[in-house]
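Write out a record, fold above all:
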Amino acid sequence: MKDSLEQQLKALLPRGRVLTSAAQLAGYGADGLGYKNYLPDAVVIPSDAEELAGFMQGARALSVPVVMRGAGTSLSGGPVAAQGGVIVHTSALKKIREINTDGFWCEVECGVGLNDLDAALKPHGVFYPPDPSSGPVCTLGGNVASNAGGAHCFRYGVTSNYVLGVEAVMLDGSVHRFGGPAGGRGPWREDWKRFMIGSEGTLAAFTRFWLRLLPLPEKVWTFRATYPDLKSTEAAIHALVAHPSYPAAIEMLDPRGVAMVESSQMACGLPEGSFMLLVEIDGPAALVNARVEPVAEILCQAGSQDVMFSDEDDIRKKLWKARKASGGLLGQLSPAYVVQDAVIPKRALAEVLQLVYDEADAAGIRAVNVFHAGDGNLHPNFLFDSRVPGELEKVELISKRLMQRVIEVGGTLSGEHGIGNDKSSYMPLVFGPDSMRLQLAVPHAFNPAHQMNPLKVFDNRRFTA
C-alpha cells in the first residue's frame, strides 16, 4: 500500500517532493506539544500554490487523511496525522508578494515566517501586530489556522483582527478567494473568510493571505516589576487593565518561571522567589512619554519595590527574549512538558492559578506559569517524564480539572493555541448537543468525509474511506 501511495503522490507532484522513509517521517510525528506522536504515511512538499491545487484535486482519490502543516510549532496537536495519511508541508510557499504602505496591507504566501515578515515590513515603517512566542519559526498559515495571538494581543488583538482576505484550495482542487486587500466578502455575499480563520486545517488548504498592517509606534516604553506574592501581582494587573494608558502588553512570570530564566543565559537580574510583570506602552512619543510616570506609579502602588523602565531598544529586546524563550527553557529542564491554553475572566486569575499549583503539587508534577495576564490568557506548563508510568495520566487529569474550572468561572478553552486533538474531548464542557451538531455541520459542508485533518477540534471527526 505504501509503494502504491508513493507512486500516486509522485504523479500528483511532478515538481514537488514526496517523503516516505522512516527517517524523513520521524520529524513530522508531533508538533510543539511533543508528547503525542503520530507518524504519517507520507509527507508531500508542493513546489508552489499551483502544484498544491493539483494535489488537492487528486487527494480525494487517495482515500487517506490529508493534514496541512506549516512549521509544526502549534501546541495543541493540530498539524499531526492522528489518523495516518499524508501531511502537506507548505514550506515552499514563502513569497512576500506585495507590501502596500498606502493601503496598509500586504499579500503573503502561507509559508512565510512571521519574523521574516516583520523584518521585511520594518523598513517601510509598518508592522503586523500578532506576535506569538514562536515568531522566529512559525508560519503565517499556521497562525491563521489557529488564530494565533501573542504578547501584544491585549491591545492589538489576535490574527483574525488582521486577515483581510484568504485564498484557499478545496478538496476538489478548486481555488477560492474570500476577501482581499480591501477586506470585504469576496465573490459571495457571505463573509466566508471568517470560517477559515481558526479552522485548524479542517476545511481547506491555505495558499496566501492579505493582511492588515499598522504604522510602527513612534515610541515604546518597557516596564519590569517584581512582586512578593500573587495577590499584589494581581492587583497590579487589574490596575493596569483599567488605566487609560492602555498597555500594549501585560505579561506575567511566576517565581518558578523567574528562577528558570535567571538560571539561564537569559538572566536579567530578577529577584529570587518573585512574580514578574513585563509591561509595554507604545504610541506617539509625546503621549507615551507622559504616561510613563503614571504606569510606574501603578506598579509601585500595587506593592512592587523593584520597578524598572526604559525606552532603550537593547533592554527591551533582552526582556522580551527572556519572556519568549520560556518554552525552549522548559524543554531543557524536563524530558517532556505540556503547555495549556485557556482564557479566564481576570477576576478569577488568582483562584485559577492557585488551583494549578495545588493540583500539580499534590500530584508531584512541577507547574510553571508564564502567560498573557492582560487578557487572562493562561499558559500553565506541566513538566513531567513520559517514560515514568502514570506521569502523563496525572498531567491529563490536572488539565481536565483545570479546564472544568475555567468553564465554571466563565472562561473558554483556548485563546490562541487552538483545540487540535489535545482539547477536543473538552468541547462538550462548553457546547451542548445542539451547538455541537451545528458546529460539526460546517466542516461537513466543506469536507463531508472529514478527510481534512480528522480527529481534530471534535474528537468524533473521523475519516472513513
About this structure: The two ends are 14 Å apart (CA to CA).
